[in-house]
User: Fold these one by one.
Assistant:
Number 1:
Amino acid sequence: MNLSNFDFRIQKAELDDLNALKTLIKKSKLVHEEIETHLENFFVIKEESNIIGCAGIEHYDDVGLLRSVAVDIKYQRKGLGKKLINKMIVFAEEKGIENLYLLTDSAEEFFKKFGFKLVSRNDVDSRIQQTYEYTTACDETASVMVKRLN
């Protein structure tokens, strides 16, 4: 598939997107719990009316947790994940987030390309340590990364 012929748009997720959003995230084996709580901070990529990518942020004052970054397997390796991450970084900066965290089991190298750095679990902001993803959903073996924003 050539992206130049590919009509996609990144847009804010809406309540009507919730079921399709959760389905994509579950298929991607990512944390889907509590999405509705943070839906206003989720973005989706659609091709026509189908959600083929998504990402969200849990926002706690000046810190955030980047979560549920997923691209449908048929659309991977086409730069859509990169576009989502860049969108989320800009969105986080607009929200006044200074430290954007994430947890990952398998994508450290991917996120390093965007300036995320590994951080010790002891150095994670306490507000992030209280999230469902940090306390329950992700193994303690998951890598924690942070990007300092302007």
Number 2:
Amino acid sequence: MSQDWGAGLRLGVVGHPVEHSRSPRIHELFAKQFGLPLEYPLFDVLPADFAAFVKHREEAHQSGMNVTLPHKQAAHALCEVLTDRAWQAGAVNTLWWEGHVLHGDNTDGIGLVRDLTLHQGVELKGKRIMVVGAGGACRGILGPLLNAGVSSIIISNRSTDRARALAEVFAEEGELGWCGLEQAHQHSVDLLINATSCGHRGSFPELSGDLVGADTVCYDLSYGPAALPFLDWATKNGARMAVDGLGMLVEQAAESFHTWTGLKPDTKAVLGTLREESLRP
């Protein structure tokens, strides 16, 4: 993507609700690293208004936008050009225009892989993975995990039909299986990923503690309070490591930032700042 950023970045994140998003702070820190002026507001938009909103932002000469729930699939449908990973994920979290042509990408999966490997020191090659949940969050990370050389992925979900259907979509990409939540403990895995939204309701999936071993890494795609129920469960059951998705959020944002600007921010510094800020009263 080629643009003159002399006038600054006109970005933002659109979702509903969206007031909880840390994206404005993350992109503020990115922009400061390069001395770029930045506009990055929160756009709270109802699903019925999303298509009209995107068209309006194009007419307002928006540089680009991040997209969060519940609009990622709608954004995918609006795009005239999709990256391979956005097409594969069936969802878009990064928008930009080239002329009047709307482009879309999905940076969630690469954000997860980079957080695990760069910040958490987790080797993915040859590892056995289980992803709990078969919704859009799961679909967005399967391709990048398989591309990272994992040995296998099991999708565990309350509805086994939904888990099987998703596994079949990615069957040509690598070894995938599926099971119900009650059968999850029958599998031995190195990395357990919670891709459900249960934590936002203060709960976590109904999983047996036998699923977690002394060498198991547990990762929640959510961050902050929403990740705590799953991470507390993982810690109580003896997981080697229990990590939330804040690093994933920073890394997926960095990939979006690079798409818009061609610049690669220092994500380690930004993640450290966010962790410090979260500890302040």
